[in-house]
Amino acid sequence: HVERLASPSRRKELPALAIITHTFSKRLPNGLPESDYNDSLLEMDLMLIDAMKDQKIGSPVLIETFGGKRMFYYYVVDQCFAEKRFEDLRPLFPAEELCFDSRADPDWGFIQRYAKDYFPDLLF
Questions:
Q1: 1: pLDDT strictly greater than 60
Q2: SS3 of 42, please?
Q3: 3-state helix, strand and coil shares in percent for the chain, rounded to the nearest 5
Q4: b vs e for 73-91, b when ≥16 Cβ sit within 10 Å of the residue's Cβ?
């Protein structure tokens, strides 16, 4: 589905990049979450993935885990709406440190640079 997601028309529909960052409270020296703790995060991770997973709202494009954090990247229709969606979810996980950030990225420059750096054979 990369082709459909990255189509010029879809990019116009989703002009903003939203990022939810989860800082782990239990991590190993290499920055990855402890195994049992990571298992306990499954429900939250799935809810965060689905938070913007709607054709009218946005689409998750990347999840990465390193340095004691897990970042969820989405392209969204509206930054304010995405932040409201995040604020609705945050109280469900009061023990976890979750942060929201967003910025305009109408050309999808972030994900294009990421793909070029890590997946040079992927055409975007």
A1: no
A2: helix
A3: 40, 30, 30
A4: bbbbbbbebbbebbeebee
Q: Is 67 left (phi over 0), alpha (psi -120 to 50) or beta?
A: left
Distance CA 11, CA 108 (A): 7
Tell me if the pTM is above 0.70.
yes
Which tens digit of pLDDT belongs to each residue from 83-109? Answer: 999 999 999 999 999 999 999 999 999
More confident residue, 39 or 53: 39
The answer to whether residues 66 and 28 touch, using CB atoms and an 8 Å cutoff, is: no
User: In the chain, what is the greatest distance between 2 CA atoms, to the nearest angstrom?
Assistant: 43
- What 30-35 contacts at long range (C-beta under 8 Å, 24+ apart), as own/partner pairs, is 31/66, 31/67, 31/68, 31/69, 32/65, 32/66, 33/65, 33/70
